[in-house]
Design a protein that fits this description.
The complex is a heterodimer of chains A (473) and B (385). Chain A is an alpha+beta fold. Chain A is 34% helix and 19% strand. In chain A, helix 9 packs across helix 12 and helix 13 packs antiparallel against helix 14. Chain A is globular, with a radius of gyration of 22 Å. Chain B folds into three domains: 175 residues, Uridine Diphospho-n-acetylenolpyruvylglucosamine Reductase, domain 3 (2-Layer Sandwich); 76 residues, Alpha-Beta Plaits (2-Layer Sandwich), CATH 3.30.70; 87 residues, Alpha-Beta Plaits. The relative contact order of chain B is 0.14. Classes of the chains: A alpha+beta (473), B alpha+beta (385). Chains A and B meet through helix 7, helix 8, helix 10 and helix 16 of A and strand 8, helix 7, strand 10, helix 10 and strand 15 of B.
Amino acid sequence: MNELIESLRAIVGDKRVLVRAGELRTYESDGLPGYQKRPALAVFPGTRDEVIAVVRLLADRNVPFVPRGAGTGLSGGALADDVVLLGLHRLKGILSIDADDGRAVVEPGVVNSSLGRAAAAFGLSFAPDPSSQTACTIGGNVAENAGGPHCLKYGVTLNHVLAITALLPGGEIVQLGNPEGESDGYDLLGAFIGSEGCFGVALDVTVLLTKNPQAVRTLLADFSSVDAAAHAVSAVIAAGIVPAAMEMMDAATVQVVEASIYAAGYPTDAAAILLIELDGAAAGLDDDAARVAAFCRAAGARGVRSATDPEERARLWQGRKKAFGAMGRISPALVVQDAVVPRTKLPAVLAEIHRIAERHDVHICNVFHAGDGNLHPNIGYDPTNPAEAARVHAAMSEVMHACIDAGGTITGEHGVGLDKMPYMDALFTPATLRAMCEVREVFDPGRRANPGKVVPVHACREWHGVPSTWRSA
Amino acid sequence: MTTSEAPARGHAAAVVDEVQRARAARTPLRIVGAGTWLHGGRPVHADHRLDLRDLAGAGVLHYEPGDLTLTVRAATTFGEIDRLLRAEGQWLPLDPPGGADGTIGATIATASAGPLASAFGTPREQVLGVEIVNGCGEVIRAGGRVVKNVAGFDLTRLMTGAWGTLGAITEVSVRLRARPATETTVAVAASAAEAWRWISASEFAPYAAELLNPTLARALGVGDRSTLLLRLGGNESLVRAALSSVAALAEPHPVDAAVWTRLSERDAPDTAVIRLSSRPSRLSPIWERVSTTLERVGGEAHATPRRGVVRCTIPVDSTGDEAFARLRGIINALRVDATMVAERLPAPLWRSLVPGAASDALSRGLRGVFDPDRLLNPGIFGELP
């Protein structure tokens, strides 16, 4: 171990290798408190060449590692016991922006909103907009196939990445996708995106940039029942209108947001509010906005308000994007789920979630991407109270199974990580899980990259290669 | 809602039996859906067919219009899907070459796309999940039926465009769209440079913006020069504004929407079909070269400027070494500075023009996971028997 530390220091410099428990504490969890794992050490390369040298050294010594960006993930993904934590956030280079073709080449540590600011100078933007976008990195977005409110219209990270230069766990460098045209053969790029750090790390990412819309309309509708809001969502979609975003927050969420520093002026007596954004060419946008407002009123909205200036629009969005932050301020710990259900099942699933909460005596807040059925039920709790923590986890497990039973899935944009692994068996057949394990082994025959994530070990072929004793070497 | 329950062992059961029999006998299989694209792709070294229409059948498994998703058996045709969706005011915006008889399974397997990919992307953007039978005769169900899903590694993307070499697709789930209030198609004369300038600067996102070379424009009866064929959709104000914006290029002429079907059904059997691609902004010189060359040999070309893709159809009116050498010369002249993907070539030309795909170590490893004995469509990526 000491020899490894010295070798890593020789690559990245003394200060970029952390070994003391106190220094490593930051890297014991991600954005989802409740999972704590202790890496053996953390290394922070600052250049592409340093990343390559570090990964090749780890390959040479058969050492398991966990890639990590900003650590904002919500699945307990970028952490593990007794591994080398490979922090990539120092690779912040925006290597090129090609405004004519709407694309940029960036290093993995570039923060999502920094890329957004750089692109804005050309009237462009990077479409995926996870709520953590002021901190999360493009490498992390790729690892989780991140989404965000606006992926209702614009799609997720998969739809906005043209190519990746990937460093496989064994140290080989491969080009995935083709920035100069179509690809023939297997969609290795598609397989890599969303692989949660198990297939290697991205050295650079060629992303697509989207032209900023000519005009934007942001509407806030408030409802006296969650059902009514869900019906409004269905009516808008059925009419062939594709809003850029359609977000729902229930009464519990609205009250927490409004009591926080992120107060956005949401009506605190509403049972549910919808934040709906339309964008595109100015022509016809007001017609669509009028129709959306009419659908909301027909579904029983008490009021529909339109943001009249960019400041008000930003304020309405801040309440939504900081909702988890607001909840985090009133509870020591927070569980956040990420299930997706068929849109028509939303009212029934929300009612079931309500019943589950009552049964377990927990307080569930719902804030979610209503347009695509992506739910984020969350519960604040005190982890030092074992009885409460047990009730919370029992309730969440029931919520997840209710979503699976409704024909849904266990994660829409946060990833499986550690948090959703218990549900993988309910979602996939043994043959499918085994295929996933074997696909991982094609990229990482040693199973050293982000070990123990995504696919439960019992679903994989027996394997004895995990180098659990590397530290004593 | 339409739901037909699968039989107890699932509708893939007969495919499983057939693959397991073939595996025991080491018999390579040629996967067949409707059989309309057997002339596409590299030669397959297999005498036996795995006929998905016979074994797994066609038809709808799950359709809930409010969810805007559809699950069908893989051999279901676009014609069947379109009839079902039209009644609900919805559509699946995929228009690969071939027309109504083509199957959704073959489209996903080959990742084939048409002009609508300009706005809606290729099959990888639209497929939500697949069921496959791999080369060991195991059923694998990847993805799901919901529009957002990152549970587990993305086997759905791997199957899309794998040409059946990782498994025979038996079931497909796709996302749908509601039809817009208004839709219109117009033709406008434009060079590649003019078309790209308009498309890249436009606030309007046409459903399709396809550039036709003069030969193809004449054949479709929409012009006699390089012509941009536009499909615009949305509410009436939007479409009206888009039309007046197009008028800045040249006078737009209304065209019957059936032109899109005629375009997708156009491929004649005795042709070679290749696609050239590049960054969209660099398409213009490729297009000019293609136009000039194909005008001389009577070939047709259409391009999707937004994607930077040109599809060229070159007549193959005779066989024999001399004719093939001529064709090879034409294609090699066309492909300069472009990425080339071939859809259809005379069998002897594949190896010299596009020797292989999926030959890298990762791809070979993946083939080994799903089809260790290389029973499924062997040869279709140029691998040796």
